[in-house]
Amino acid sequence: xxxxxxxxxxxxxxxxxxPDGCTDLIWSAGRLLVAGxxxxxxxxxxxxxxxxxxxxxxxxxxxAAFGLPASALRDERVPLDEVWPRAEAARLAxxxxxxxxxxxxxxxxxxxxxxxxAGRARDGQSSLPHARVVRGLCAGGTVAxxxxxxxxxxxxxxxxxxxxxxxxxxxLARVLRMGHALExxxxxxxxxxxxxxxGYADQAHLAREVRALAGVxxxxxxxxx
Length: 225
Prior knowledge:
By secondary structure, the chain is α+β, with helices and mostly antiparallel strands. The chain is built from ten helices and seven strands. The protein has helices spanning about 60-65, 85-100, 105-120, 130-140, 145-150, 155-165, 170-185, 190-200, 205-215, 220-225, and strands at about 1-5, 15, 25-30, 30-35, 40-45, 50-55, 75-80. The protein starts with a strand and ends with a helix. About 35% of the residues are buried.
């Protein structure tokens, strides 16, 4: 998924990036960065007029693009030339600097597609059926049941989840559940009903989890949207 963000010309600000299990390739301030999967909120301080273009990879997909286990990038923001070969990263940076702003997203997508077709990211791929894992955890299944369904031991599942997602299945489940809860709350559903729908013990449990992962109370987070 492609995304873009631009700070106002008169003032910058602080953007709170919430954990979502994703990894990103980002063009920002003339640099290409890789943002790994977060286990806690990451604060981005924007200068006035700052513009960012990113390509977001769904949970479990990043290793195929970057050629590294997701755990190697967990909670990190690193230059692309520390992940891809320097010459390859430099070519993409030159291309991004040369194209108009409206074409930057297409340039990012094209570079990743080319890399995947050439098979240069193969070593980072995981044999774990990541989409199946995400569906199972979103459905509220236990780690033990998910491991049995996939045909792995719990220890094997944890190891492969670390490679694919950057963290184990229990942490992934927490992150996905928070994302689902915030989606429902932003749609106007009362927090008590949200907590019951997504599997929290009660509203207080939801509030504790959001504060632990997002760094602020859930009411403050929703008010800032």
